[in-house]
Amino acid sequence: MEVRSENVQLRCDKLQPPVIPRTRLQVWFIRVCSSILLWTCLVQLVAVGELWHPKFLPKITNRVPWITRLPRHVDAVVQSPPPVVAPRNYTSNGFLKVSCNGGLNQMRAAICDMVTVARFLNLTLVVPELDKTSFWADPSNFEDIFDVRHFIDSLRDEVRIVRRLPKRFNRKYGYKPFEMPPVSWSSEKYYLQQILPLFSKYKVLHFNRTDARLANNEIPLDLQKLRCRVNFQGLKFTPEIENLGYKLIRMLQEKGPFLALHLRYEMDMLAFSGCTHGCAQEEAEELKRLRYAYPWWREKEIISEEKRSQGLCPLTPEETALVLQALGYDKDTQIYIAAGEIYGGERRLAALRAAFPRIVKKEMLLDPAELQQFQNHSSQMAALDFMVSTASNTFIPTYDGNMAKVVEGHRRYLGFKKSILLDRKRLVELLDMHQNGTISWNEFVAAVQLAHEKRMGQPIHRRVIADKPKEEDYFYANPQECLCEGTNCDDILARGNSSIIR
After folding, report:
1. Alpha-carbon distance 387 to 142, whole Å?
2. What is the pLDDT of residues 306-329, one digit of tens each?
3. Helix count (H) and strand count (E) of the chain?
4. Percent of the residues in the chain that have a pLDDT greater than 70, as a whole number
5. CA-based nearest residue to 262, from 329, 333, 340
6. 356 vs 261: CA distance, rounded Å
């Protein structure tokens, strides 16, 4: 019996498959596959979070500056694109083609408006054309400044965007689209009643001017929020611009807090405004000739000192130095000049640099080879300044042009970051009084600080002036509908601080 039992056991052992130990290669392969799977899941979760966090975490998003989350070596980081949102299903009423006019930030705001118009009228938007005929003569196309694939994909659940018109609508096939400039500061009723019927006849409309063509106020909340979504999420700079912009920001942050000064003392602004305070006679004549050379600069005969007294001139570098000192900034303050070439060059910057020796510009921080690709492309250069200005600890514009307004709005969106909005009319009075000896330095300092206590970019209701849209606050400087949840913003906007003028 015992022998028989042993034989049975031996036969059973032979029937069982042999246990083969795993090789090191197999173990390594399994671990690698598992790691790849885990990292893929993690990247997808992060991407989904980035796509949806503005909707689900608005308060956190609005309070945490994006720049604090930058990787230290962002230029070496390849980020996974967010998952593409499902396209909105609608029957298009036609194609909207737009040619933006002005500088980078004027065109940026116009693009946001045109996406909103296309969404409201159920149109297909053609990727906007950028201005190449203005004073700056920048040959950049949309895709040279903005990530066009991101622009199309990130907004596809709102509006259909195409890179170009279908061939049947090309001029070489004999088709001529209907061109027109829409009426400035128009509400959605204008576009619904006056513009939409044109598409049934022409199929393609070409807006050849887009600056300020949508009203600041009395626009439905969902359209206002769409303007913000395009501005804050849809318009993303190209990787080349972003990488260099992040590098500039890191270089500045490594040296401590910094102030971004938008010193709008440039030839085009002085010529356009007719402001020649502090200029030599030959410089004033040069600026006047430039103004007359551009037919669309309508105002020709300008009395510079009158305009300055009304607060309609950018501060000079010398005036800016005194104002910054009065606001409490000292010689150790790190200042980044966010501007093009200053009229008069280093000679006009001498007083400002003497008071603040830690003044830098992008040309001083970056190697010439790094900026070579952006030379003669003013909008791409302005994009770098835009990034640095948005990320700065404090932003101070010396003139309330388009860049100043759009940066101000971005900084409000990022948690009401400090932006000192200079009261130039009051400052000119104080500067003249101090320089002619009417008030002492201490009195000047006290008056300047008092005048700007409530001009630091704090939450405030956007000013509305009935029937005077040009004089009311600009939507993109204070997009209040996008700064809080729901329609009741009293928890964020100053209670009882409404500045509506009727």
Report:
1. 17
2. 999 999 999 999 999 999 999 999
3. 21, 9
4. 79
5. 340
6. 12
